[in-house]
């Protein structure tokens, strides 16, 4: 089967953002797409963004000239943290290293989540042991990564990540003057080592260290204060932080969306004005970051923030074009069908209960097809049921005709209901499935993606495609059962409970079940007034 115009079918390194098409976002206007400057010289754009920020905040004082945060050592019990909140595999690794005489800490987002009484996505360990010593301490262990090597310790079906102070120290590249800017007069050598490590973190709320044996949380950057203020702020000046690692822009968006936090003024400024720099990331990394945003229970908030700060046009131009055409403003609090679909996805997921990336890509393709060609709500209902049962349209029609709930008529994508006979209904359902596969092809076609925002001269033109061929084919399989014959031997999932392990692995019955549930709940919401 020939796959037309797919980016991944054309060349080995198939996902490119053409340099001549990269633009830098300027000031966002609420009535239209953001005003954009062509990016001819990224360095000059960065300097302009920094000067613009410094000038606009000269009177009130910039965050760039930061006061040294007070170093704090807090009792974990006072923060509501107990060692019982740490999962068993992580405790085994901590105990294994501690018994050999090494210092061990939990670091990063897991400490933040424990303080917030949230379930951490995972636990990261930092130790005084060298990585080679960690290797010797555990039978199933490997060093991964070149730029920032860490150890993966395998325990049963779990991987625990362990990093070393020594490795982090070698990567410490900040200037000497800046390095000593925050030191306390009464600090000891261990404080200094811990503080140096904290300065390498992306955000203050991710720079906390928890010693589970001393039951102390170390805060050298004001992270606890920012958690209390529900604020996302970079550890070092945002302009420097995002130039060092542009992926921090996407992580900042993801964490703000997941926690419902707001950005500090300086961080918000440089998220918006350095957004173009994410084009430097390889496509595998972009897919990973997008999956973290959309597959872990905070997809709707992530899409809103990507749109608000001008990143949606670069990452998902097709969806950005939908927002523009529907008159969706940058700070709009209203919803639409795309956001409602992802809101219903979020209700089923959590940081420790993610979905496979094929599910959220399927939702994007489904919505694109429906926006291009609005359908009767009964057609959508039959389609979702047919996806669920493996393509048995007759059974899907019989069930759908019994629906007595009202559909959400606020969505442009849904037509006024009509009286459709079986054959017409079947034809339209199969046409919708074919349209979704066509939309998926468009989402992986560099030329089509680049034209999505072409009608808006002020918008950036991005031909960014980060969906690999294997994932494209996997998503296509979700809908093939509706286009062709019902799958032989397919057993639809029984019951409404989701098997999250299967969903994360991309099990076809589980993905289809969850997809159908999300679509049906969006078209026929329970709380429709």
UniProtKB/TrEMBL annotation:
An MF annotation (GO) of this entry: nucleotidyltransferase activity
Pfam family, one: PolyA_pol
Domain tRNA nucleotidyltransferase/poly(A) polymerase RNA and SrmB- binding residues, every copy: 260-321
Keyword flag Transferase: yes
UniProt keyword annotation of 4Fe-4S present: no
Keyword annotations: Nucleotide-binding, RNA-binding, Transferase
GO annotation terms (biological process): tRNA 3'-terminal CCA addition
Signal peptide (residue range): none
The Poly A polymerase head domain, residue ranges: 104-233
InterPro entries assigned: NT_sf, PolA_pol_head_dom, PolyA_RNA-bd, tRNA_ntf/polyA_polymerase_I
Record-stated family: Belongs to the tRNA nucleotidyltransferase/poly(A) polymerase family.
Designated name of the protein: Poly(A) polymerase
């Amino acid at each position: 089967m020939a796959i037309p115009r797919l980016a991944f079918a054309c060349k080995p390194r198939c996902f490119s953002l053409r340099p001549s098409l990269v633009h830098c976002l300027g000031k966002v206007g609420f009535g239209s797409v953001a005003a954009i400057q062509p990016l001819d010289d990224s360095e000059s754009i960065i300097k302009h963004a920094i000067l613009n920020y410094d000038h606009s905040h000269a009177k009130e004082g910039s965050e760039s000239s930061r006061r040294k945060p007070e170093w704090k050592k807090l009792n974990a019990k006072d923060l509501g943290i107990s060692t019982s909140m740490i999962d068993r595999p992580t405790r085994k690794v901590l105990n294994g290293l501690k018994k050999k005489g090494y210092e061990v800490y939990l670091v990063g987002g897991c400490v933040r989540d424990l303080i917030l009484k949230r379930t951490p996505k995972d636990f990261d360990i930092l130790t005084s042991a060298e990585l080679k010593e960690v290797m010797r301490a555990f039978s199933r262990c490997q060093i991964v990564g070149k730029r920032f090597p860490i150890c993966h310790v395998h325990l049963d079906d779990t991987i625990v990540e362990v990093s070393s102070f020594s490795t982090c120290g070698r990567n410490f590249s900040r200037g000497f003057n800046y390095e000593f800017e925050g030191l306390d007069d009464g600090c000891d050598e261990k404080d200094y080592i811990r503080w140096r490590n904290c300065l390498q973190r992306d955000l203050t709320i991710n720079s906390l260290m928890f010693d589970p044996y001393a039951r102390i949380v170390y805060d050298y950057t004001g992270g606890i204060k920012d958690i209390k203020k529900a604020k996302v702020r970079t550890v070092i000046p945002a302009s420097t932080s995002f130039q060092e690692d542009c992926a921090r822009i996407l992580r900042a968006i993801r964490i703000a969306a997941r926690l419902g936090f707001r950005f500090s003024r300086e961080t918000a400024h440089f998220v918006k004005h350095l957004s173009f720099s994410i084009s430097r990331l390889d496509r595998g990394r972009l897919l990973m970051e997008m999956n973290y945003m959309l597959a872990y229970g905070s997809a709707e908030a992530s899409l809103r923030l990507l749109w608000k700060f001008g990143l949606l046009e670069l990452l998902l131009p097709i969806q950005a074009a939908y927002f523009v055409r529907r008159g969706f403003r940058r700070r709009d609090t209203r919803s639409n069908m795309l956001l409602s679909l992802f809101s219903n996805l979020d209700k089923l997921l959590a940081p420790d209960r993610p979905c496979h990336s094929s599910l959220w890509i399927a939702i994007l393709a489904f919505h694109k097809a429906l926006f291009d060609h609005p359908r009767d709500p009964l057609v959508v209902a039959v389609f979702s049921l047919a996806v669920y049962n493996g393509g048995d349209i007759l059974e899907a029609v019989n069930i759908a005709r019994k629906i007595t709930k009202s559909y959400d008529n606020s969505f442009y994508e849904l037509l006024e209901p009509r009286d459709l006979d079986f054959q017409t209904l079947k034809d339209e359902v199969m046409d919708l499935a074919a349209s979704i596969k066509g939309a998926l092809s468009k989402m992986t076609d560099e030329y089509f993606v680049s034209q999505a925002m072409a009608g808006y001269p002020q918008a950036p033109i991005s031909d960014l495609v980060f969906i690999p061929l294997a994932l494209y084919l996997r998503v296509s399989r979700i809908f093939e059962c509706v286009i062709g014959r019902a799958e032989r031997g397919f057993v639809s999932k029984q019951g409404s409970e989701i098997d999250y392990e299967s969903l994360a692995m991309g099990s076809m019955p589980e993905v289809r079940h969850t997809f159908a549930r999300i679509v049906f709940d969006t078209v026929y919401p329970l709380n429709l007034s």
